[in-house]
């Protein structure tokens, strides 16, 4: 019997959407206000879900405290109150779109979750704009 557990988290971060090799005009045409050279910020909400078999001894799929610690260490501590373009190494050469951010987060968490578990990450950039990644 498979069950999904989920943990919500939150972080605030700034970013700028642009491509270094494009002109300002091309960046403006594609990314609009998100191309502001002085950056802009979001209050991101995150839901991390792990699906797996219930352990007959503990009754857990996994300890939610362990999942909470992973999110705190690998996401909140590294992204919260940061400029994603400047402060987060994964985005030095990767445009920090919501799509790319959710994949980076998923990869960070995936390394710490047992391979037999399924992992899904949902990232809300705004209350109405969100992305979901479940792996390849």
From TrEMBL:
The note on cofactor binding and number reads: Binds 1 zinc ion per subunit.
Name the pathway it acts in.
Purine metabolism; 7-cyano-7-deazaguanine biosynthesis
- Domain of life, per the record? Bacteria
Catalytic reactions of this protein = 7,8-dihydroneopterin 3'-triphosphate + H2O = 6-carboxy-5,6,7,8-tetrahydropterin + triphosphate + acetaldehyde + 2 H(+)
Q: Name one GO molecular function term.
A: metal ion binding
Q: Which cofactor does it need?
A: Zn(2+)
- Gene3D superfamilies tied to this protein: 6-pyruvoyl tetrahydropterin synthase/QueD
GO process annotations (BP): tRNA queuosine(34) biosynthetic process
Q: Does the keyword Lyase apply?
A: yes
Provide the E.C. number(s) assigned to this enzyme.
4.-.-.-
Do the record's keywords include Transport? no
Residue positions of the active site: 34 (proton acceptor), 81 (charge relay system), 125 (charge relay system)
InterPro entries listed in its UniProt record: 6-PTP_synth/QueD, 6-PTP_synth/QueD_sf
Question: Which EC class, in a word?
Answer: lyase
Its keywords, alphabetically, are: Lyase, Metal-binding, Queuosine biosynthesis, Zinc
For the ligand (Zn(2+)), the binding residues are 15, 40, 42
**What PANTHER family does the entry give?**
6-PYRUVOYL TETRAHYDROBIOPTERIN SYNTHASE (PTHR12589:SF7), PYRUVOYL TETRAHYDROBIOPTERIN SYNTHASE (PTHR12589)
The UniProt family comment states: Belongs to the PTPS family. QueD subfamily.
Q: What is this protein called?
A: 6-carboxy-5,6,7,8-tetrahydropterin synthase
Name the species this protein comes from. Answer: Flavobacterium caseinilyticum
